[in-house]
Amino acid sequence: PGQSVPFEEYMKLLCENKIKEDSKKLFSATMKIDVLRAKVSQTQSVYIEYDGLMAGKDFHRQSMLLQNGDWSDGIVVAFIKDIDHELKEKEILLLKSELDPMTGLLNKETFFKKAKEILSKNEHSKYAVIFLDLDFFKKLNDTLGHMMGDEAICDTAEIIKQIFEETALIG
Q: Read out DSSP for 7-30?
């Protein structure tokens, strides 16, 4: 039938394949048999909390290992929460906070932050910076109204997106 895998080997495989990067260090340090035994011998229980992947979805797990002291008997109580939707919502909110809602281009703060990051990482590379001014925009806005002005800005943003590569920083 099935083969048994040593506990620490199983935990290592689990960590490599199912535990999220920011939880791996703590998980690896905690899920060693001698560490668990030492903790249980002091308190008769161990509390473990980590984030991982299950069936392609993000989850948060809280577990309590309860032992009788000599490891002859024990139970694990676990609570698993699907946090996939929460994380996707956070990503969407972050993206929305970085973009201008009308044009979909980077907002001023995000543009300068990302430009600074790029320039600090690649000090010796060459870049081009282009500033655009829409001639007679105020006149367009004043005579045809703000809706037409907004449309002109959005049309310009779309043209700029089409001209430059996806890797270009546009804001």
A: HHHHHHHHHHHHB-HHHHHHHHHH
103: Cα separation from own chain's centroid: 24
- Residue in the structure block whose two tokens are 């270009």: 168
pLDDT in tens, 59-75: 888 877 776 655 566 66
**pLDDT tens digits, one per residue of 126-152:** 888 888 888 888 998 899 999 999 999
Residue 25's Cβ-count burial label (10 Å; 0-12, 13-18, 19+) is exposed
Task: Tell me the two tokens of residue 64.
Answer: 């309590």
Contact present, 170 and 164 (Cβ < 8 Å): yes
Q: Is 54 helix (H, G, I), strand (E, B) or coil?
A: strand
CA distance linking residue 7 with residue 31, whole number of Å: 9
Tokens (6 digits) for 51: 């984030």
Cα–Cα nearest to 28, from 45, 13, 43, 40: 13
pLDDT given for residue 93 in this prediction: 92
